[in-house]
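Journal club prep, notes for RB
We'll compare a predicted complex against what the paper describes. Inputs for the adenosine-5'-triphosphate case:
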Amino acid sequence: MGVKDSLLTDEMMDTIIANAFEWIVVVDNKGKIIYMNDSYCKFTEVDSKEVIGMHVTEVIENTRMHEVVKTGKEELADLQFIRGNYMIANRVPIFNENNEVIGAYGTVIFRDTSEWDKMNSHVKSMLGRIRNYLQEYELQTGVKYTLEDIIGNSKLITLLKEKVKQIAASDVSILIRGESGTGKELFAHSIHQLSNRSQMPFIKLNCAAIPEHLLESELFGYEEGAFTGAKKGGKKGKFLLADGGTLFLDEIGDMSLPMQIKLLRALQEGEVEPIGATTPIQVNVRVIAATNRPLEKMMEEKRFREDLYYRIHVIPFYIPSLRERTEDIPLLVNHFIQKICKRTGRRITGVTEEVLLTLSRYRWPGNIRELENAIQAAVHLSSEEKLTMQALPDYLTDSYSIPLGEKTLKETLEDAEKQAIVQTIEKCHNDKLVAAKQLGISKSSLYEKLKKFSIQ
Ligand SMILES: Nc1ncnc2c1ncn2[C@@H]1O[C@H](COP(=O)(O)OP(=O)(O)OP(=O)(O)O)[C@@H](O)[C@H]1O
């Protein structure tokens, strides 16, 4: 709605601009004043009608408005000394449709830079306090991320963020599924941070990273002298460290069957028995588990226990891959550029259209982690203000080329067929009937192909 159609009348606009907190001056292309608002006139002790037509240098000390109409270049946040004070001035040229400068407008934001200094130091001290508080909170609880750290405005991510808010307080177990690098850990932290346990510890254990024989002592701890090599005083297990808080079991699909039994027992009984202990210890822990493994198939093959599955799968939580939400790529790219520039002191303002298109087309098997690494490499390689195709790692720009000479024609065609099937099923959110329709084949022939290519 334009000003003319709105309830705002021209008189109202005049009053607002005349008394605006900012001082405003408008000049023509010769530097002659055509408007100066009341508050600016009061300060410079001139009459708002009399100044019209005067050269701006006759009215305002140290002005550069007459220069801006000559250069056509805006000058932002410039310091200008007026009547004994440094002020912060913005000067912006005005162009006509032929791109000729027809004038300029200037604003002065702070009448006195001490106001600005005060405000600046106040903001800085607040930021410092918040940072200290966050560091302390991270140190005390282990929580590194909150929902605000999850970047993305696609429908899928927005819905997931809503779901986090709904389920965080419920205190039930959650199983987060999703490919590697999709942000499972970020979501686990955010759920804990929004739960009633947020002031208690968030403890992470990567079940795939710990050798089988050490996993039990990592989870449940041990008593002094429990085995040769045991530490003096024993060791607290992750369960006890997480008491009152949340235990995040990453890569739970990689846990061996004997460990699954022990974990299930601890979850069911609410108690753990450190190795070498004679009595169990009560614990109150919420478990958030994560995996990229096909647990249902593993259950069929008796590689994952059904009872444990149902114990941890109270609320399923699926994080879509990056290729299912390419709308998030521009925001993520900017986020990572800013993050990396802040860390390295580089000045990169964005990416070219071509780069954005390339990034949106790539399949991102390593998801957001891979995107972050690619941007990091590009920022380091770039000497331009915007990231260009030259700065992108080769594999991103070559991703559509066919590996000539490496595969037979039959294999190449099969690869393409497989890729088309996987992508379509993902796009249809696993609805095979819809996917078959989109691929132009029957449901039974889709199932045949899934079997042929061992697609789960
Ligand atoms: N939505 C997001 N916004 C910003 N950064 C993200 C987002 N999702 C993931 N990341 C970043 O991507 C990286 C991988 O995230 P994370 O470790 O949570 O993934 P994951 O799914 O747990 O991976 P894995 O299964 O390999 O453990 C981290 O550096 C994280 O900060």
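Talking point for the session: The longest helix spans residues 113-141.
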